[in-house]
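Subject: indole-3-glycerol-phosphate synthase

B.,
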Amino acid sequence: VSSYAQAQADAVSVVTEEKFFCGSLELIREIKTTTTLPLLQKDFIMDEYQVLESAKCGSDALLFIAQLRNEFDVSVFELCKRYGIVPVIEIVDEKDLNFAEHAEVIGVNARNLIDFTIDVERACRIIEKLPKEKITIGFSGVKSRKEVEMYKQAGAKAVLVGTGLLKSTDILSSISNLKNL
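Prediction pasted inline below.
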């Protein structure tokens, strides 16, 4: 995590989902002691109890996946805000746009959650449809500066880079190159 801070990353994404991704809320607690960077907790958040757990462990932002929800639950977002947690709604396709209207921060995932293919161009088309006053983040598919530029051109204000950094042997250089520092 110190490499992320040194490379001027804006935040750190932490997967806490246990069953499928072997994550843990304990990761948030541990990482929180080593950095002042904001931590985005990625999990399958379904109810208010999970928001309370996230607040207790120190999450700064919490991911809500639109495709896991039948309808928007404003009370969960309000609970996040009450505890100083930024709710981030993740959308994948145009069907999810109705969820985006309630969120200030929206991640548009280039990864299809059914077959796991990645299509940055599709994600960019969705970003272009979002209101400019929203904070939009391009999720997935960032392998080089090219994808960062595509997201930026579409209107994204940030990108989330996961696998690309996990596979990197030089995180400092990778982040610097993506940020064009």
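The first strand starts at residue 12 and ends at 15.

T.
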